[in-house]
Amino acid sequence: MNKELQFLIYNTPGENLSINAVVKDETVWLTQKAMAELFQTSKQNVSLHLKNIFKDNELDENSVVKDFLTTAGDGKNYNTQFYNLDAIISVGYRVNSRKATLFRIWATGILKEYMTKGFAMDDERLKQGKTAFGNDYFRELLERIRSIRASERRIWQQITDIFAACSIDYDRDSPITQNFYAMVQNKFHYAITGQTAAEIVHSKADRNKANMGLETYKNAPGGRVLKSDVS
């Protein structure tokens, strides 16, 4: 049996866009009729936009359309065509209606945030744990953050290698070397966050919070903090 629930497409103050949808294969599925209700337009208009989307090769029809067995009002089961989230978004960008316009404003804001910051997140959905798709993407987010931090360490390693190569009497344990590394690392912190290392610790550390406010570590959330997480 396919899982059907009320799926919130987006939410803004005073406005929201939600619809009863089938959730399967980590995506949302709607019929043409449901899309028409979602964007406040006609089923014929949705059908026309879908034909143009496939004609323009914007989407592959075989990848976004699937037949599901549904029960009609007469109690009989029928195969009905459903369209996944990719198709829903594409239709939303083509329909001329108030709801579709609100959707485009919201979606463009998400895209702008991604292009400006390099990321876009739904904070509340991540805090809630498992999503409508049955998965908790928080751990995936942590893994990606760790990967980014690992690349930062490689950049830092290149700087230390350059310093060592340019120093005739290089000694990694000398006070001059240690002070140089501390100064450069502090500049990295300030360039990225606008704060020095000491200022970051002062603003983040809180003895009244679990793990003194540490949020990102290997066994997060709720696991044991290791020495490697804080050194």
Architecture overview:
With 231 residues, the protein is an alpha+beta fold. The protein has two domains: 3-127, no CATH class; 138-229, no CATH class. The protein has nine helices and five strands, in the order E-E-E-H-H-H-E-E-H-H-H-H-H-H. Helix 1 crosses helix 2 (43-55).
Write a concise keyword list for the protein shown above.
5 strands, elongated, 2 domains, two-stranded antiparallel ribbon, single chain, 9 helices, 16% strand, 49% helix, alpha+beta, 231 residues, 3-stranded antiparallel β-sheet
Secondary structure class reads alpha+beta
Residue-averaged pLDDT? 81
Shape: elongated
- Main sheet record: 3 strands, antiparallel
Q: What's the helical proportion of residues?
A: 40-55%
Secondary-structure map with pairings?
Elements: E1 3-12, E2 15-24, E3 27-29, H1 32-38, H2 43-55, H3 61-64, E4 65-71, E5 77-83, H4 85-92, H5 98-117, H6 123-127, H7 138-166, H8 175-193, H9 197-204
Antiparallel strand pairs: 1-2, 2-3, 4-5
Condensed summary:
The protein has nine helices and five strands. The chain is of the alpha+beta class and 231 residues long.
